[in-house]
C-alpha cells in the first residue's frame, strides 16, 4: 500500500529523474513536475518512479490493485480542433500509472511494452494502436504484449502492414496491430488544466478506468507481469503506425508541468 500526499517533503520512496532542465518542486503539498523549456534534439523530462535500477522481475506492483491520483496539467490536451496548433497545448508525452519501461532513451526496445496508465501524447506523436482511435491525445490505456500467442500475430501483421503501405487501407493492419499489442484505450476529453481524480483498477484479467467516478474504459486484457509506477512530463514523441513506422524523437516546447496532489495505491487482495 502507498498513500503519499506530498506533505512538506518528497517521500524518499520515489526515485527522482530530472533530465535536460526538468525539475521537481513542492508547494503547499502539491508536487510539480515540469520544465521551463525544451529543445528539439535534447531529451527533457521531470519524473518520479519506483523502478529505476531494478530488474523487471523485481518491479513492485502486481494485480489486483487500485490506483488513485488527483492531478492537473499546465495546458490543454490536443484535440481535433487544435490539432495543428504549436502553442497553448501540452506537448511531448505525459501521464501516470504502471509500465515495464521497455525502451531506452535512444529508442532501443528491451522488451515488448506492458502498461496500464493514463497516457498523453501530442503530435508529431502518432501511436495508432486501436482502430478508430487517434494516435495522440489524453487516453486511458492498457497494453498487454507479453502473453502467450502474441507471436502468432506477427505474420498477419507484417502482411497487412505491407498492404497498408501499398493501398492506404489501414483497417486490416490496425486490427492485427491491436491484437499484437493487446491494446485497449479510450480517448478522454476532460479539461487537463482542472483538478480531476483519476482512478484505475488492475485485475488479472481486466483493467478499469474512471475520471471523477465516471467510467472511461473497461479492458478485457491486462498485464500480468510486475510493473513499476511512473509519473512524468517530457518533450518526447513516438510513432507507431499500421504501415510499420516506428520512431522516437524530441521536440521544442515552452514551459509546462504536471501537478499531483496525491497518489494512492492499494492492494485489492482479500
Structure explained in plain terms:
- The protein is mainly β.
- It has one domain: Jelly Rolls, CATH 2.60.120.200.
- It has 2 helices and 18 strands.
- Strands 1, 3, 4, 6, 12, 13, 14 and 18 form an 8-stranded antiparallel beta sheet that branches. Strands 2-5-15-7-8-10-11 form a 7-stranded antiparallel beta sheet, with no helix packed on it. The protein has a 3-stranded mixed beta sheet with strand order 9-16-17, with no helix packed on it.
- α1 (154-167) packs antiparallel against α2 (171-181).
Radius of gyration: 18 Å
In N-to-C order, the SSE pattern is: EEEEEEEEEEHHEEEEEEEE
Task: Note the gap between the termini.
Answer: 13 Å
Structural class label:
mainly beta
Largest sheet: 8 strands, antiparallel
Shape: globular
Compute the number of strand runs.
18
When the domains are counted, the total is: 1
- Outline the low-pLDDT stretches: none
Overall pLDDT: 87
So what's the CATH class?
Mainly Beta
SS field, number of helical segments: 2
Beta-strand percentage? 35-45%
Helical residue percent? under 10%
CATH topology: Jelly Rolls
CATH architecture: Sandwich
What would you call the quaternary organization? single chain
Compose a concise summary of this entry.
By secondary structure, the chain is mainly beta. It is built from 2 helices and 18 strands.
What attributes does this structure have?
single chain; 270 residues; mainly beta; Jelly Rolls; eight-stranded antiparallel β-sheet; seven-stranded antiparallel β-sheet; 2 helices; 41% strand; globular
Amino acid at each position: 500500500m502507498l498513500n503519499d500526499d506530498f506533505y512538506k517533503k518528497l517521500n524518499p520512496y520515489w526515485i527522482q529523474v530530472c533530465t535536460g532542465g526538468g525539475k521537481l518542486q513542492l508547494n503547499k503539498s502539491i508536487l510539480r513536475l515540469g520544465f521551463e523549456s525544451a529543445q528539439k534534439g535534447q531529451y527533457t523530462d521531470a519524473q518520479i518512479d519506483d523502478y529505476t535500477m531494478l530488474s523487471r522481475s523485481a518491479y513492485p506492483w502486481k494485480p489486483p490493485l487500485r490506483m488513485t491520483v488527483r492531478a492537473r496539467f499546465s495546458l490543454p490536451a490536443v484535440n481535433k480542433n487544435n490539432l495543428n496548433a504549436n502553442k497553448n497545448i501540452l506537448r511531448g508525452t505525459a501521464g501516470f500509472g504502471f509500465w515495464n519501461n521497455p525502451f531506452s532513451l535512444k529508442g532501443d526496445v528491451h522488451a515488448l511494452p506492458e502498461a496500464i496508465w493514463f497516457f498523453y501524447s501530442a503530435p508529431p506523436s502518432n501511436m495508432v494502436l486501436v482502430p478508430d482511435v487517434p494516435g495522440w491525445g489524453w487516453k486511458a490505456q492498457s497494453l498487454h504484449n507479453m502473453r502467450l500467442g502474441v507471436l502468432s500475430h506477427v505474420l498477419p501483421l507484417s502482411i497487412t502492414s505491407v498492404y497498408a503501405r501499398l493501398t492506404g487501407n489501414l483497417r486490416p493492419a490496425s486490427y492485427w496491430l491491436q491484437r499484437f499489442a493487446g491494446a485497449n484505450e479510450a480517448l478522454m476529453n476532460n479539461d487537463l488544466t482542472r483538478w480531476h481524480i483519476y482512478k484505475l483498477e488492475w485485475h488479472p484479467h481486466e483493467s478499469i478506468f474512471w475520471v471523477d467516478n465516471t467510467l472511461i474504459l473497461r479492458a478485457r486484457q491486462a498485464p500480468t507481469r510486475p510493473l513499476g509506477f511512473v509519473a512524468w512530463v517530457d518533450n518526447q514523441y513516438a510513432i507507431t503506425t499500421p504501415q510499420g513506422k516506428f520512431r522516437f524523437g524530441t521536440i521544442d516546447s515552452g514551459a509546462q508541468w504536471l501537478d499531483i496532489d496525491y497518489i494512492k495505491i492499494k492492494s485489492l487482495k482479500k
